[in-house]
């Protein structure tokens, strides 16, 4: 969660980015930005907003920037929230570093399954008080779909009768994951995947990434700017992806003993398993695209050769077979099937090729 | 920033402000202590947004400035040092704080945070004229009242202590659904009535802990009426005030009684605590029977305290008392009696009751203006 706040690790570039985007420092999401800026300009800020979109797309960052704008003291009239956060005043800096006493972050505790009712009650007692420094009291509820039903129902009271000056900013992957009673009480701002060109350009302009690398990262990011920025800042991420992919891509050429050994090893890290399977899913998507003549849309552009070889051997039908097999495995994992057993089944589903 | 001070002074100051450092805050800056070298003194400050504490420490200031350091780390570090001179230097751009014990070869660097992001703790300026109280009196008033405030947050006004200033007197009141404690002290010169304020009981308990044993304390409400400041020569404590209206507590205090018993505080406390041992196992039920002189053939008035626990046994104690009025039996929650008897130091207390269904009153029999109202319990058994 913290990671996605880290667009600003490279100070130089971010200054340029902020200048280009009126201090918001957000790539894309023009439609969402426009709506928020219009609300700020007309002084008609609603009491609750819901930002939805896939992971690492910039929901939290956008919510945080909106909070900065609401509390920014750098505007022409200090009593009013400016249309854009200035990123220079003390209030903007405090929000950026998580030190603003009027911005509260509510998220699922790492050791719990849900956002619990006690967290919402604490939010409510905090909301009943005056703001300490700013014009608004802002609550960021990150991953609002992770509230259990008690917590969600408890939040309704605040969504229905918010205290003056309270602004709730919720994020969730999809609106369908929230209670209808919550949806009807928030302004919904959907965020969409960015285009690969948008990401590539942003990486080249603001993060000073070499064009070839930018193209690869932009393709791999599949529309998620947050992931792209992470890949730029954390080189290990790309190295790891390559290692994982090579391991997976070699599997069809290997016998059962090797496959089961891999399954055993992978099931030892259940938290990374899902991510790995999604990576593999993307691989087979590329194979399917290759087989059906969609070469331009493939994501794993750096491993084109291996893709081509597997496509020639397996074709569209083989890729489809694997995609369904992986989806079944993901579903099984969600239903608490033993990871090793699920993986072994998947390994048996994988066609055996004599040469890869 | 650069200053030199004694290890003991710094350690004492840090232990005072650490009362306000929050252990589990979402704001990283709040886990820090603000060090501020200013006008010949060193100011330490910490806050958890509920309360904030400033503490001033003697120091030789070589260069004025401000910085923050992680509270726990720095406190434990300073406590680990031998007594003697400590020199602290901070780089304004990197927020790294260097600490040296001169001549002992100890050199430590601690990474701090940008002090400008530290929340403002209001100072005494611009508020209403202060209310002046002596520290021992204030401590006594807090200890006699704050315990009666509600612990659960379901009704926020009851977690606070009401402070009223009327006719040269200051009154502290706290109540939950079953009891009420009020203490009044003279406040010469305060003829102007002030707006009532509600201070969180937790804050006052914290204040009582850090107040010096003597000297005056100034109580000041900030101009926006949202905070209250307790100012002493070396320590400032700021607390948020609670919103809401405290109910009219005077209506709850019974104006008359049918039976009044005056008892020795010490003896009563001992017997009530003994009854508590049994009562704890049966919903805290403790029966008090007040009998005037002559009833049951006794030569003096008596108060009988009785508690029964089905699986433990029972206890009955009879105390001699000066009883005025008719015989009466009443049931109280033993915890509510123990709480109040723990904080009264008058040699004698008076217990006044009207009927088994109406609240009873406990007061010390001396010059202290203190009233404790306690709701009786009812059982289906007679």
Automatic annotation (TrEMBL), chain B:
Residues 1-121 form the DNA polymerase III beta sliding clamp N-terminal domain. Residues 135-248 form the DNA polymerase III beta sliding clamp central domain. It comes from the Bacteria. It is found in: Cytoplasm. GO terms for cellular component: cytoplasm; DNA polymerase III complex. The keyword Cytoplasm applies. Residues 251-377 form the DNA polymerase III beta sliding clamp C-terminal domain. GO terms for biological process: DNA strand elongation involved in DNA replication. InterPro entries: DNA_clamp_sf (IPR046938), DNA_polIII_beta (IPR001001), DNA_polIII_beta_C (IPR022635), DNA_polIII_beta_cen (IPR022637), DNA_polIII_beta_N (IPR022634). The keyword Lipoprotein does not apply. GO terms for molecular function: 3'-5' exonuclease activity; DNA binding; DNA-directed DNA polymerase activity. Keywords: Cytoplasm, DNA replication, DNA-binding, DNA-directed DNA polymerase, Nucleotidyltransferase, Transferase. NCBIfam families: dnan (TIGR00663). Confers DNA tethering and processivity to DNA polymerases and other proteins. Acts as a clamp, forming a ring around DNA (a reaction catalyzed by the clamp-loading complex) which diffuses in an ATP-independent manner freely and bidirectionally along dsDNA. Initially characterized for its ability to contact the catalytic subunit of DNA polymerase III (Pol III), a complex, multichain enzyme responsible for most of the replicative synthesis in bacteria; Pol III exhibits 3'-5' exonuclease proofreading activity. Belongs to the beta sliding clamp family. Forms a ring-shaped head-to-tail homodimer around DNA. This is Beta sliding clamp. It comes from Thermogemmatispora aurantia.
């Amino acid at each position: 969660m913290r990671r996605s706040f880290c667009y600003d690790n490279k100070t130089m570039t971010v200054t340029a980015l902020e200048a280009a985007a009126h201090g918001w420092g957000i790539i894309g999401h023009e439609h969402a930005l426009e709506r928020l800026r219009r609300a700020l300009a007309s002084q008609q800020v609603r009491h609750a907003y819901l930002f939805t979109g896939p992971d690492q797309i910039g929901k939290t960052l956008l919510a945080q920037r909106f909070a900065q704008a609401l509390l920014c003291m750098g505007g022409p009239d200090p009593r009013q929230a400016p249309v854009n956060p200035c990123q220079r005043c003390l209030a903007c800096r405090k929000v950026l570093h998580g030190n603003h006493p009027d911005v509260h972050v509510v998220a699922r505790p790492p050791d719990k399954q849900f956002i619990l009712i006690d967290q919402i009650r604490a939010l409510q007692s905090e909301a009943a008080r005056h703001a300490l420094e700013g014009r608004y009291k802002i609550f960021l509820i990150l991953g609002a779909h992770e509230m259990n039903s008690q917590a969600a129902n408890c939040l309704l009271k605040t969504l229905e009768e918010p205290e003056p000056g309270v602004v709730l900013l919720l994020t969730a992957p999809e609106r369908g994951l929230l209670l209808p009673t919550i949806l009807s009480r928030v302004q919904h701002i959907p965020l969409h995947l960015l285009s690969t060109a948008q990401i590539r350009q942003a990486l080249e302009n603001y993060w000073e990434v070499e064009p070839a690398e930018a193209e690869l990262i932009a393709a791999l990011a599949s529309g998620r700017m947050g992931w792209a920025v992470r890949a730029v800042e954390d080189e290990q991420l790309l190295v790891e992806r390559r290692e994982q992919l090579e391991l997976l891509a070699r599997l069809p050429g290997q016998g059962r003993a090797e496959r089961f050994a891999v399954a055993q090893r992978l099931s030892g890290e259940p938290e990374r398993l899902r991510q790995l399977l999604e990576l593999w899913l993307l691989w087979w998507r590329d194979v399917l695209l290759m087989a059906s003549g969609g070469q331009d849309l493939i994501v794993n552009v750096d491993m084109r050769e291996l893709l081509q070889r597997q496509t020639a051997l397996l074709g569209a039908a083989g890729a489809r077979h694997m995609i369904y097999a992986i989806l079944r495995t993901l579903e099984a994992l969600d239903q608490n099937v033993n990871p090793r057993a699920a993986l072994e089944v998947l390994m048996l589903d994988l066609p055996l090729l004599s040469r890869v | 920033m650069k200053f030199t001070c004694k290890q003991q002074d710094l350690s004492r100051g840090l232990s005072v402000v650490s009362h306000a450092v929050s252990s589990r805050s979402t704001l990283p800056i709040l886990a820090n202590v603000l060090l501020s070298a200013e006008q010949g003194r060193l100011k330490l400050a910490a806050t958890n947004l509920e309360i904030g504490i400033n503490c001033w420490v003697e120091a030789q200031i070589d260069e004025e400035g401000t910085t923050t350091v992680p509270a726990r780390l720095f406190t434990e570090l300073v406590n680990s040092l031998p007594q003697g001179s400590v020199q602290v230097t901070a780089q304004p751009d990197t927020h790294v704080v260097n600490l040296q014990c001169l001549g002992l070869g100890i050199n430590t660097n601690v990474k701090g945070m940008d002090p400008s992001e530290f929340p403002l703790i209001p100072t005494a300026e611009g508020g209403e004229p202060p209310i002046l109280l002596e520290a021992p009196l204030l401590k006594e008033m807090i200890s006699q009242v704050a315990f009666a405030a509600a612990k659960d947050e379901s009704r926020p006004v009851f977690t606070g202590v009401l402070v009223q200033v009327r006719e040269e007197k200051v009154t502290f009141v706290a109540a939950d659904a079953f009891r009420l404690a009020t203490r009044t002290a003279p406040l010469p010169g305060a003829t102007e009535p002030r707006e009532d304020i509600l201070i969180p009981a937790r804050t006052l308990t914290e204040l009582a802990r850090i107040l010096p044993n003597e000297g005056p304390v100034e109580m000041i409400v900030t101009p926006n009426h949202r905070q209250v400041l307790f100012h002493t020569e070396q320590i400032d404590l700021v607390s948020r005030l609670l919103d809401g209206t405290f109910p009219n507590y005077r209506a709850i205090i019974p104006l008359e009684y049918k039976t009044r018993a005056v008892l020795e505080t010490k003896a009563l406390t001992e017997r009530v605590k003994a009854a508590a041992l049994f009562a704890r196992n049966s919903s805290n039920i403790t029966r008090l029977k007040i009998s005037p002189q002559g009833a049951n053939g006794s030569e003096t008035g008596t108060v009988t305290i009785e508690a029964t626990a089905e699986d433990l046994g029972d206890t009955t104690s009879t105390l001699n008392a000066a009883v005025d009025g008719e015989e009466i039996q009443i049931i109280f929650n033993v915890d509510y009696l123990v709480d109040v008897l723990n904080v009264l130091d008058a040699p004698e207390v008076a217990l006044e009751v009207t009927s088994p269904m109406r609240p009873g009153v406990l007061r010390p029999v001396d010059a202290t203006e203190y009233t404790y109202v306690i709701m009786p319990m009812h059982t289906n058994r007679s």
